[in-house]
Amino acid sequence: MKINATLLTPETPIIKIQIGDKYYPKSTLTEETINIENNDSEKITSRHLITEGLVLLDTQMYYDSSKTVIFEIDEETVVMNFIYSSNVETQIDQLEGEKYSRENTHNIFYTNNFKATFTIPAHKQVNYLSIILSKEFYYNIINEDWQLHEKFSKNILHKKSSYLTSKYLPFTPAIQWVTHEIKSCTRQGALKRIYIESKIKELLIYQLEAIHTKPSTKEKIEEEDYKKLLKAKNILDNDYRNTPTLPELSRQISLNEFKLKKGFKACFGTTVKSYIIKLRMEHAKELFQSKSATVSEAAYKCGYKDVSHFSAAFKNYYGFSPQKFKINTDIIKFWLIGLSFLW
């Protein structure tokens, strides 16, 4: 499989990767980072995780003037695509889809010979996370359970390029979190390969779930309200320690409280309160796994003034207390370290 991305005018190679198409669970996962700067403000940063049958691209771009990127893959591939930027004009050969990207949306598509043109708008921070899988790699992670997406599966078998769903869907909190975990992974060696592959499987589950639980026509959100709801979500993402009350959040995004509550649940599959709890609990888990905080420190760093309230919320979320989680984490890490020596 050859993957190439080229920036036009002036012609500049961004990505040039060649890997095998087979699925080898013990193949090494390598990492590379591309940094291209044309001047003080124009910049491309692309982080790649690469192994046989799998390439993960986390690419960020910013330009002072509109630019065009040509992206090509010469073999059959299934691409799990996560878009963090709006208004990127997209043209993909053999695939009919939305002309302009929408912020914080995702989809999956299959192509047997991928060629796409992306027009990057000026003064816009653009970020894509793309997980490119060979057909064999995809078969292995989905275990050929075609009933999960029967029409899409038939298209793959008949080598017909297609999207899993006709329109890109908004991120769910679960997708938002797992993509964050992938981007921030610091594991190394064999453990990193196992971790990344497990997260790809997890993402696939959440993408398939999103298709079956997407809002009905009656719950359709107006584009302007959708942007306001995304703004609300970003406010919570950026500071979940000191979150505003619902009335305060409603005023900050200029959307009435009823539409905020109903729209947030329809778009992101959870309530505002539950989303805040999720962000806090996932952060607490990270702190405990990295051994960077005691229970009382984690409570403070997650926005709780009372440790007992934090412990109760943690136990309600995970099923056991923070203290027990810390003990179990130490045991699991010890076991994994021992296992890595066996490999």
How many β strands by DSSP?
Answer: 13
Radius of gyration: 21 Å
CATH architecture of the largest domain: Sandwich
Total DSSP helices: 11
Order of helices and strands: EEEEEEEEEEEHHEEHHHHHHHHH
Distance between the termini: 28 Å
Decide which structural class fits the backbone: alpha+beta
Shape: globular
The CATH superfamily of the largest domain is known as Jelly Rolls
Q: Can you tell me the CATH class of the largest domain? A: Mainly Beta
Number of domains: 2
The share of residues in extended strands comes to 15-25%
Mean pLDDT across residues: 86
Helix content: 40-55%
Largest sheet: 8 strands, antiparallel
In the CATH hierarchy, the third-tier topology of the largest domain is known as Jelly Rolls
Spans with pLDDT under 50 lasting ≥5 residues?
A: 334-343
